[in-house]
Structures are given as structure tokens and as C-alpha cells.
TrEMBL record:
Belongs to the glutaredoxin family. This is Glutaredoxin-like protein. InterPro entries: Glutaredoxin-like, Glutaredoxin-like_YDR286C, Thioredoxin-like_sf. It comes from the Eukaryota. Keywords: Electron transport, Membrane, Transmembrane, Transmembrane helix, Transport. The chain crosses the membrane at residues 12-34. It comes from Myripristis murdjan.
Amino acid sequence: MNAIKNTDIYALSSWCLWSLSLSFCVSCGSYFILDNSQTMFALTLRSFHHTRNSALPLQRLFSKKSLPTLTLFTKDPCPLCDEAKEVLEPYKHRYIFQQIDITLPENKVWYDKYKYDIPVFHLNGQFLMKHRVNTFLLEKQLAKQQHW
């Protein structure tokens, strides 16, 4: 007899609150998650352990279309950063945008690395470009992410 345990979990991100229903199958050790649209996702115990501690992987897991994360390393003032954000405007529907202020104490590592190079951009945690937006490179990498 398969025993299923149900519970509700919530994942809070900066742009939304996900209400999820979590079921655990005792016999096979799998987690089954239902999102708001009742779409079921199966996760192994190991993969659930990694996703439960962060809202972003949960948000990506349950988004209809998984979008890459574009991170801008910036500070205030930064005229080149302002210019870069304007150039990025037409692409904003194709990525999740995140800004990291390198002058904040918790971002000292990024400050030490990029203090002379902002704006710096990462796509899904990997360096993409710095100083100015290269729209050709951005377009190429976003297209590659879509086919992944």
C-alpha cells in the first residue's frame, strides 16, 4: 500500500508567492509537487533538498517557461549602468533581472572583483559581459538558453 503524505509549502521570492502542495510517496521516496495550476512535478529527495532552501529554483521550476537570470553588478551612481538598463529594455521579457549593489557590505567579494569594471553582467551565474551591453552577444546567449 502506497502511503502518501500531503502538506502545503510556500516559496516567497521578490516578485511572487508560490503556493504549492507537496506529497511524499513513502514507498518510492519521491516528492510530488502540485503548483497553482495543479501541474505535477516529481522530485527525488535529493533534488527537493536543494530546491527547498531557495525561492529562485522553485520559481523557475514552476514557471510556465523557464527564463534565464540576468544579473547586473552595479553601484550608485553608475551612469553606464543606467545606460545599460535602457539598452536592455527591449529584452526584459526574455530574462529574470537581478541587480547586485557591490557597495553593500554583504557584497564585498563582488566589490573587490568588479569595482573598476561595472556594469558587469552574468547570465545564470556565468560572466557574460562588462562595461557596455553587447546586444549581439546577449541575443546569442538568450537564444542558446531558450533551446536548453
